[in-house]
Amino acid sequence: MSKPRLGVFKFSSCDGCQLSILDAEDELLELLDRVELADFLEASSASAGAPYDVALVEGSISTEEEVERIIRIRKESKMLVALGACATSGGLQALRNWSRLGLFESAVYPEPKVARGLEKVLPISDFVAVDLELRGCPVSKAQLLQFFAATLRGAKPRFPASAVCFECKRAGNHCLVVAGGTPCLGPVTASGCGALCPSRGRGCYGCFGPSDDANLDSYTSWLSAHKVDRSTIGLLLKGANSQSPEFRRWIEKNG
Amino acid sequence: MARRVVVDTGPMARVEGEGSLSIVEKGTGVPEVKLNIFEPPRFFEAFLRGRQAEEIPDIVSRICGICPVAYQISSLNALEGLFGVEIDEQVRRLRRILYYGEWIESHALHIFMLAAPDFVGVPDAIAMAKRDPGLVRGALTLKRLGNNLISAVGGREIHPVSLKIGGIYRAPSKEALASLSPELDRLRGSVQKMVAFLSSLERPSLERESTLVCLCDPERYAIDRGEIASNRGLRLPPSSFEENFEEYQVEYSNALHSRTKGGGSYMVGPLARFNLNYDQLNPAARALAREAGLKPPLKDPFQSILVRAVEIVHALEETAREVGEYEEPVRPSVPYKAKAGTCYGVSEAPRGVLYHSYTVNGRGQVERAKIIPPTSQNQARMEDDVRLLAPRIMKSDADEARRLSEMAIRNYDPCISCATHFLRLDIRKA
């Protein structure tokens, strides 16, 4: 069997998710030996180009050029994977979707000619079909490696997005919300981080986006009844995953 | 003479983010050099407005996946200064260990995966590993140690979660940090080989004068804080940064350029730090610098790769000492009350001075944010270096011209994702 052709691509983002590939120091050389690296601009000046068996895409879509580029990459790829919060739910830069344009224009510079920007910053799936999403800001290195391990042997990787609470309970933590009244998005956020924040005594701020069964209305009413004000909840949801359907709906309804 | 495109790199590989370089000969003697940064801006300064001060470190960390710690520390320096927070000495130590981890990780990534392939004449570290697997595995081990230090203090390598205004959410145990010591000691004993390898590489050279700017801290080779200093005798508190340096826009770049007020380009980063703070380098790092033939003043940007290696040695030594002296803090975090005002914070990101300024209102909300990353400060200097190299570049064949000019840019380890987080977007209605 010939090696699968891998492409790694960046859109509007911080580089952190593609860096997670290079951060797999123990596995990197073996991994790269099992694929044909067709394009990975950050790591190599060799570019074999399309077609790709697997395209890993980091970042959200914020300009017309990016729309054209993601459509082209989709056409050239058998499997397209959205990597991380920007690609799956807009990333922090999508927060400009809720601001008046004037607010941004007052941060103006002398010559207002830059990229041809879209009115809204949106996830990859708003433009093309996405075969798999890996969540997180940044993605979990463990999930990334699980993805490669499964895909390379022809299996279909699955990442059920149960709530962070499951990982938090397994870690043996006291519940921050119940015991301390700390606002925590754990009950509505997808697992994958290993309950990183609650294990350090801080509330989850939702960087893996909504869990599969997130019931935001119910949970946020409960938080409100327990003296967490709506504006605090709003700020928590207006993070790296504000364009996920569940978070976006709540923000649009509740301001 | 007709217009001739000497170099047009297209999207440049092995840099963080998206940019390209063009050199065009116009028959006027001096060629036109443009570092075109086309990565779309992300407007962090704009959407930071209205956010609570306590959210800032986690938001700004997302400007850069390669140096998130630098963003967290510069913002904490600014906000803790404004709120009058005095953090525990052991927490400061933890923040330094976190920051040394980032220097080690980022420098190892740059040296071996982004820069060295140019010197060796291969497209990437994978090809380098085919020739010398031991070297690349060693580099990855070093990089992993940097990441392990960040995870031990911060919870994860990229966008760590442990820092907060006033301190740290939960301090690692003494044992948890001490468990990294054997690996630290092993690598301290093996970095000489790395420096020897890098010294053996054939390097282009470019001796030139430049204004160098970095932080100076009387306590140490500046990393987590300091005053702004230059090789022209400048010495300023962070609050005076904007009075002495200015940003300006060029039409071909989505990142603002910087210059000294009334002057020209300047350079931040390892070479500036080495030249200004050499005496504060750890003795082991100084010894290796001497062996590699490095002593201040260094004027050649192609020596940056070696200086980064010296800084890795320094960071390893200092981390080993700090880990040894670490005691779990009595007060991991101290309470504070948000105050209104304008604040300033700086620190030494792996690529150089990272400046933050915030105006906060009485409700603890950000009203104005300004962030000037090292890469935007270095842009004008990068172009100046390429201009100085132009006579050599124009005499070379196409491949060599491209290699030489890309190397001149990679000397600065540019992080384009950092540099384009601001600036106005020309919004078109869909």
What does this structure look like?
Chain A is an alpha/beta fold. Chain A folds into two domains: 5-152, Rossmann fold (3-Layer(aba) Sandwich), CATH 3.40.50.700; 164-254, no CATH class. In chain A, strands 2-1-3-5-7 form a five-stranded parallel β-sheet. Chain A has a two-stranded antiparallel sheet with strand order 4-6. Chain A is globular and about 55 Å long. Chain A is built from eleven helices and seven strands. The termini of chain A are far apart. Helices cover 35% and strands 15% of the residues of chain A. Chain B is built from 16 helices and 15 strands. The model of chain B is unreliable at 422-430 (pLDDT under 50). In chain B, α8 packs antiparallel against α13 and α9 (191-200) packs antiparallel against α13. The longest helix of chain B is centred in the first third of the chain and has 32 residues, at 89-120. Chain B has 430 residues and is an alpha+beta fold. Chain B starts with a strand and ends with a strand. Helices cover 45% and strands 17% of the residues of chain B. In chain B, the strands form five sheets. Chain B has a four-stranded mixed β-sheet. A three-stranded antiparallel β-sheet of chain B has the order 1-2-3. A three-stranded antiparallel β-sheet of chain B has the order 12-13-14. Chains A and B meet through α1, α2, α3, α5 and β6 of A and α1, α4, α5, α6 and β15 of B. β6 of chain A pairs parallel with β15 (426-427) of chain B.
